[in-house]
Amino acid sequence: MMHNEERTFIAIKPDGVIRGLTSTIIKRFEDKGYKIIGLKMLMVTNEMAAKHYEEHYGKPFYNRLIKYITSGPIVAMVIQGYNVIKGARQLMGATDPADAQVGTIRADFAQLKEYNVVHGSDCAESAEREIAIYFKPEELCTEWKNMAEIVTEKEDL
């Protein structure tokens, strides 16, 4: 990775998947120029949810978080790019859609804080921890060639 290039974890939550927003949300990150190096749809287990939300354990809303994230499929992603943690959070907007800037994912597609369609890691430590919950290292595609390299290789055959 280049200087200031980071990885972060993004999840399209059950409400985003159920509403058919997956490709629209993925496109927002790709349009920004971030590289998707891990992508899969899955059902979050109670064990995964407990690890994901461990910092909220004991809070009044903890059980609702667990119930919601396990209620339907999510699309889990690892994206990589220059200052991607901060940039992804800007694309997503404030946690409460009512406070999110117009044009952000949450402002455009969500109405309630509890159902805000997307999750993104808030710092490098969280990103590392959350990526490890949802992805094995070998599931990340880190060796990419650009189109010019691919075309040149094809011509050499």
What keywords describe this structure?
157 residues; alpha+beta; Alpha-Beta Plaits; four-stranded antiparallel beta sheet; 8 helices; 42% helix
Shape: globular
- Give the oligomeric state of the chains in this entry, treating copies of one chain as homo and distinct chains as hetero: single chain
Evaluate the radius of gyration: 17 Å
CATH homologous superfamily heading = Nucleoside diphosphate kinase-like domain
Sheet of most strands = 4 strands, antiparallel
What features would you describe in this structure?
With 157 residues, the protein is an alpha+beta fold. It has a single domain (5-156), classed as Alpha-Beta Plaits, CATH 3.30.70. Helices cover 42% and strands 18% of the residues. The chain contains eight helices and four strands; from the N terminus they run βααβααβααβαα. The protein has helices at residues 14-18, 22-32, 46-52, 62-69, 84-92, 105-109, 124-134, 147-156, and strands at residues 5-12, 35-42, 74-82, 118-120. The chain has a four-stranded antiparallel β-sheet, with helices on both faces.
Could you provide a short overview of the structure?
The chain contains 8 helices and 4 strands, in the order βααβααβααβαα. With 157 residues, it is of the alpha+beta class.
